[in-house]
């Protein structure tokens, strides 16, 4: 962030304010970690913050400090709309285009309060008054840490804020394996651990808390996996019927896409998940090395994200979607 924006934000935050903090729809660990970290920081500085998620977040994130206070827009639109309309400042975290909040977009477009965007995705829209956007970072949580430092408030970091930031960095870095995990990332992690983060417990809470049904669903996704060996590509799929048969709940498919990259020689993988309520096939893409899944998702599946991790969607049937994907892959040079 430039010094002028930092000074302007310092002035905005110099007196107590009603502040809304918003993650993207279907929030992940980085979205919830960054919003809750900012929530606790603003509380500590005598503001009146509220985190409003467009829809419910996964159960495996419900242990995070402050998660019980998160308002869910889809569950109580009237109350959440009133909070947004009364907010004197709006933070949007871990997304850079208002369509990423779904139905909430129509409310946000009408607001007159200043917006502050903190995000690490490519090609940000220009809706925000102040923008901290940098694709060099592996997570928005790492940027929230920097944001607090920029404001001269590093002394406000405590175990609660650090726990939220740690969670987002851990999840969005693939447990520190992804290429954007830098020496600076690890130095921040060391600082967070020194503040009391229980770094041996958090991975257990996030990754070792599966239900029997979730493990069965993972088994089905692995059974459905196809390998296009000549194209260094794998993919899997789950239909709505399969999701229903294993009593799917939000978060059960989190991370399944990564298994496709564990196959020797595979560079590009995807998972296709049917959502009949929304009338779409939700797609997650992952890659290793220089293959750009962000570009692939943007060009072919109305999506986007990062070079090695992106999402998209299809509005045709599963069969047609998979046929399209296979045809596209056969034309790729990987």
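^ structure tokens above, recovered residues below v
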């Amino acid at each position: 962030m430039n010094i002028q924006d930092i000074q302007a934000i310092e002035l905005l935050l110099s007196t107590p304010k009603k502040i809304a903090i918003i993650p993207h729809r279907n929030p992940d660990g980085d979205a919830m970690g960054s919003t809750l970290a900012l929530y606790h920081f603003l509380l500590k500085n005598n503001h009146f913050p509220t985190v409003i998620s467009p829809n419910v977040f996964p159960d495996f994130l419900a242990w995070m400090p402050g998660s019980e206070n998160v308002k869910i827009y889809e569950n109580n639109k009237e109350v959440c709309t009133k909070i947004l309309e009364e907010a004197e400042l709006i933070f949007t975290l871990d997304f850079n285009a208002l369509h990423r909040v779904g139905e909430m977009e129509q409310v946000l477009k009408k607001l007159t309060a200043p917006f502050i965007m903190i995000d690490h995705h490519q090609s940000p829209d220009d809706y925000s008054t102040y923008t901290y956007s940098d694709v060099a970072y592996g997570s928005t949580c790492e940027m929230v840490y920097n944001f607090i430092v920029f404001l001269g408030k590093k002394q406000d970091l405590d175990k609660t804020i650090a726990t939220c930031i740690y969670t987002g960095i851990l999840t969005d870095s693939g447990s520190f394996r992804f290429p954007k995990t830098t020496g600076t990332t690890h130095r921040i992690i060391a600082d967070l651990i020194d503040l009391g983060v229980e770094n041996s417990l958090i991975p257990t809470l996030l990754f070792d808390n599966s239900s029997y049904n979730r493990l069965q669903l993972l088994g089905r996704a692995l059974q459905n996996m196809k390998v296009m060996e000549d194209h260094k590509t794998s993919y899997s799929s789950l239909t709505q019927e399969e999701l229903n048969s294993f009593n799917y709940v939000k978060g059960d498919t989190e991370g399944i896409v990564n298994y496709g990259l564990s196959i020797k020689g595979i560079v590009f993988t995807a998972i296709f998940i049917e959502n009949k309520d929304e009338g779409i096939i939700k797609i997650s893409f992952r890659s290793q090395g220089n293959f750009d899944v962000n570009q692939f998702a943007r060009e072919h599946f109305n999506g986007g994200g990062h070079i090695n991790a992106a999402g998209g969607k299809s509005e045709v049937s599963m069969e047609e979607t998979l046929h399209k994907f296979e045809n596209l892959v056969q034309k790729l040079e990987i």
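The longest strand covers residues 268-275.
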